[in-house]
Each structure stands twice: as C-alpha cells, then as structure tokens.
Design a protein that fits this description.
31% of the residues are buried. The chain contains 10 helices and 8 strands. It folds into 2 domains: 4-212 and 308-316, Spore Coat Polysaccharide Biosynthesis Protein SpsA, Chain A (Alpha-Beta Complex), CATH 3.90.550; 232-301. The protein is 50% helix and 15% strand. It has 317 residues and is an alpha/beta fold.
Length: 317
C-alpha cells in the first residue's frame, strides 16, 4: 500500500479548516479501507504565517488524531514558498505527496485516481479542471487567457492545472535540485520529467472565507512565471527595437521624398506620436529589463526560500 501524505498550504483558513479536516479524514478512511493507502499516511497542514487561529486549530487536530500533522513556517512567504517548504520536508517520509488547497475546491475524490496512476508507474499526476462552466465569463476568459499567454511566452505549463498534483518521492528528490528563489511551481514541476499523467475533475465552490488568489495576485503570479521561466520578453524588446528602427527608415525615406518634391509640411502630429511611441517603448523595455535584473539580484543573495518553525508529526517524536 502507498504511504501517502497530503500537503495542504494554509493562510488565514480558520473558517474552512475544521470542515476541510473532517472531509479529508473521511476520504483517508475510505482510501485505507479500499487498501489504497497505508495506516501511517498523513494529512499535513502547512501554516504560512497565518494571523488568525489557523495554527491553533492545526495543533488541536493533531492532538485529537495523529493522522493530522502540521508544519508552521516562521513567517508568511507566500503560497508557492509554503507549499515548496512542505514538499521538501515531506519528500523522504512517504512514497508520494499530493498537494491541494485548504478550501477543497479541488475535488478530493480525484485523489483515488491519482493514487491509481501512481501505482501504475506515474511519478507526477496533474489534477486538471475538466471545464470552467461554473465560472463567470470574466473569470473564465481571464483564466484561460492566463494559461495561453504563459505558454506563448515560453512558460510551459499544463492547461487548467493549478497546484493540485501528486509527486512521488523520486520526483520530489529530483525537484529538490531546483534552487531558484523566484519559484513558479506550475512551470517548474513539468521540467522534472519522469512518467506523468493527468486526472480531470470538476472544481467546486469555496464554502467560506476569501480566495487567496484575486485577479491582482493572478497577474503577479503570471508575471512571475513568465520572467522566471522564459527570456521571450527580452526577445520581444529586441524585436520591437528592430521594428521601430525599420519604421524610422521608412519615415526618413518618406520625408526625403516629400522634401525633394517640394511638399514639406510641419509634421507636429507625426512628431508627437513618434515621441510618445518611442518613449513608451523605452519605458516598457526598462521595466522588463528591471524585472529580470531584480530576479538576478534576489537569486545572487541565496536567501532561504522558507524557514520551518515547527513540525508536528508523531513519527518524528
């Protein structure tokens, strides 16, 4: 039987945690009864520096049932770093780890299929949304555009996949060789390789609390993914510069022809448009270059991506 750990990042999840814990425990009971997972499997909640009672609830869950474990980060470092910290801490303690969000919008019934895929030899199994029919038009349009833009810009990710996935101990060990400070797990995990597959599921509604990924954070995550995994924006600057130069040559020829045919007219409109266009292009180029330079600056410091303050797990006692 598979020794399975669930890695569940939490940030201010006191409203959903008790209900989510009950549902996950029921799922574990069914998986164990079906002979899919071993008795020493664990549900691990990762507290990413929450400001509410999240860690207190995790401690109570662990005290009541040792199948619940907890990891407390020393401070808030963001969802990606918290999840990474959990995965790295758990990689040598089990056969496989499944990561999922604390609100359980990802269908936990897909866990059964993920374990089956693992038993069939897959080291990575991606949970992929089968549809977005429940989303509003705006949410569906922006989300699908998000994945398409990331792939076009060179960040090769699985379409409609977030962070609901299974990774074997072997895949996690290989993933530990990635030392980037600026991490984008959805783009980095496929780089590990090994045999992989997908499991489709329907995403549910959040029962309580607020989403930790509003539009602003999704845009920031998209920018992180593009600049962490691709140099295409830099090539875009080069292409834009070449285009601007070619346009300037065409404009020069045009104005010379106008001059020698005696049709010169003061071109205030074209001058103003040129200044604004080139000025905007230069600012855009500086911004993109600055984004990459900032990442190089952070990488060069070699700061820890996360610091674990506590680890509650009876196997460690």
């Amino acid at each position: 039987m598979t020794k399975l750990y669930l890695a569940v990042p939490c940030y201010n999840e006191e409203e959903v945690l008790p209900d989510s814990a009950k549902k996950l425990l029921v799922k574990f009971d069914k998986l164990n009864a079906a002979g899919k997972i071993s008795q020493d499997s664990r549900i691990v909640f990762i507290d990413d520096g929450s400001k509410d009672r999240t860690w207190e609830i995790i401690e109570k869950l662990h005290a009541a049932d040792n199948r619940f474990a907890g990891i407390k980060m020393s401070r808030n470092r963001g969802h990606q770093n918290a999840l990474l910290g959990g995965l790295m801490l758990l990689r040598d303690k089990c056969d496989a780890v499944i990561s999922l969000d604390a609100d359980l919008q990802d269908d936990i019934n897909a866990i059964d299929l993920m374990v089956d895929k693992y038993e069939q030899g897959c080291d990575v199994v991606y949970g992929v949304r089968s549809s977005r029919d429940k989303d509003s038009f705006f949410k569906r349009f922006t989300a699908e555009g998000y994945y398409k833009i990331l792939n076009k810009m060179g960040a090769k990710i699985i379409f409609n996949h977030a962070d609901f996935r299974l990774m074997s101990a072997r895949a996690l060990e290989a993933f530990s060789e990635f030392h980037e400070v600026n991490i984008f797990l959805r783009g980095l995990v496929p780089m590990v390789g090994f045999k992989s597959d997908i499991v489709e599921y329907e995403r549910g509604e959040r029962l309580a609390g607020e989403s930790k990924y509003p539009l602003s954070k999704m845009l920031a995550l998209a920018l992180e993914g593009i600049t962490s995994l691709s140099v295409k924006p830099l090539r875009f600057i080069t292409g834009a510069g070449v285009c601007a130069f070619l346009i300037s040559i065409v404009m020069l020829i045009y104005f010379l022809v106008r001059y020698f045919t005696g049709h010169t007219v003061t071109g205030w409109a074209s001058l103003a448009v040129s200044i604004w266009a080139l000025g905007g292009l230069q600012l855009l180029a500086m911004g993109i270059l600055g984004e990459y330079l900032g990442k190089i600056y952070l990488e060069s410091k070699h700061r820890p991506r996360y610091i674990v303050e506590k680890f509650l797990n009876d196997e460690e006692n």
